[in-house]
Input
Amino acid sequence: MASAQYSSLQSNVVRVGKLSIWRSIRSKIVAIALCLVVLMIATSVLSMAMSGQVGVLLDELTNRYIPAYSHLARANVHSLERALALRRLMVAKMQVPADQDGYRARLQAFTSKDAEVQREMDAARRLINAIIDDVRTPSDNAALGRIDARIENAGVELHGELADEESKLLALLDAGDLAEARRSLTHLDNLRDQFIEKIDTIRAEMLSQVYASTATVIRNQRQTLVVSAIVTALAATIGLGFAFLVSGGITRPVRQLLQGTREIEAGRLEKSLIVSTRDEIGELSVAFNRMVEQLRRNQRIRETFGRYIDPKIAEGLIDRPEIAAIEGQRRVMTVMFCDLKGFTSMSEGVTPQGLVKIVNCYLSMMSEPIRENRGIIDKYIGDAIMAYWGPPFIEERDQAAFACNAALEMSRRLPDLQRRIPELLGLRRMSIECDIRIGIATGEMLAGSIGSEFMMNFTVMGDAVNLASRLEGANKAYGSRILLSEATARSVADAFEVREIDRILVVGQSAPQTAYELLGKKGDLSVAQAQMRTRYAEGLAAYRGRRWADARAALEGALEATPSDRPSQALLDRVANCELHPPPVEWDGSWRIEQK
Output
């Protein structure tokens, strides 16, 4: 099933990869570049077009307006030169004798000036008409038309009345009538002044058109600069907007992917990424979601395994498979056995469903302190709990302290368990006393993956394991709740309050073992408890020395300090029995416990 899902996801990724050829990050970056290039080209074309229009206007100004004005100015100059040539004619005629050669030369110069004046005026008219005919440029065609008409009228006058007067003057000079020639010259000067005045007026109007054209060129040039700046700014804004839009489409999934990674780092696997693109980041998001789904599957495996085996072992098997391959190794570890007192009697008086509720409640409440104190729950054996502390899950120097902390917390939770059991069964109170017994032992044992080729179990084995189990059972004989082995008691002596209970010889052990009771953390004993412990130690020493009276007195003193101390009562009962039935001579002060 998982293989089929993986194949389906793989095919989807391939299909997405084919679709994303044209939507890759590279194509998006190329699209941004192309957009900017297009905007730059459009801006350049517009700037060139407007600059070209300004160039046309400037060309018209320099090649038509100004030359037309220059032609009119030269026509005026040639007209004055013509008048000067006419006076020189008169001067040549007025000489005595008359200078006929000079007269003919000056007459030729006078005649040529007439053609030059006309040529300049015609050239000005051609330029003005070219301006009017050019539709590419804005111009005041009406004003230019009036100027052209005035130039034409001035030419008519030049060849009309002014030419007639000049012809009369030349005839008078040829006839030698100098007096009449002078009067004719005066009249001719008046006519020429009027002609020059008209030419000056035409020049002034033409100069105003030159100024207008210059202003148009300057205005268009400024407009070109402003429009170019606006278009450039607009193109830059559009280009940056498009770039931000596309880059946002790239960075948004990246930020989402980063946030998803942080969520995974924090251990939150609930949310998947929304795949909004088909580029490489989209493919990465698909792969990320697939990874998250795998992590969720692993998490479900951990949670499922954690219900059947300890979560630390489940995580180790998943994250560090080498743990599963560890063969048995000799290690110093600490083992705990916990049992529910009165479970057999309790099971006889309740229904199977009620018994299951009681066991589940008891195991849940007592397992939590073990896990909180970094212990490994090895197995549940009916109502019994087996747990251990040690490498590779915890440092060797801390294991006994964690086990004792867990045992004290389990003891503190006992009242809550006693209150909840009747509630689970729908009873007001339980007639059977509910209590727990705990045995803890520290020692060298075999740890590792133990089992068959079909099923393996990471567990511990050895004499220390058996001792912990026997210590748990020894609580029955002494009425105690938590018994420690001597190695465990030595390990926690600086942090916990303990008292020696007895030297016992349990089933499966060839030598007696000293058992200690865990009373609490260092400094937690009351004055009465401290006095009880001291008196109990005195009684235990007297008991081992066969001083029965002294032992009885010391133990009675312990019970006076703490009347509810069951180990003192148990040892006092044993002293009474020894008084009646003294132990054999070879007795070493230890007590054999036959039951497991």
Observations:
- Residues 525-596 form one domain.
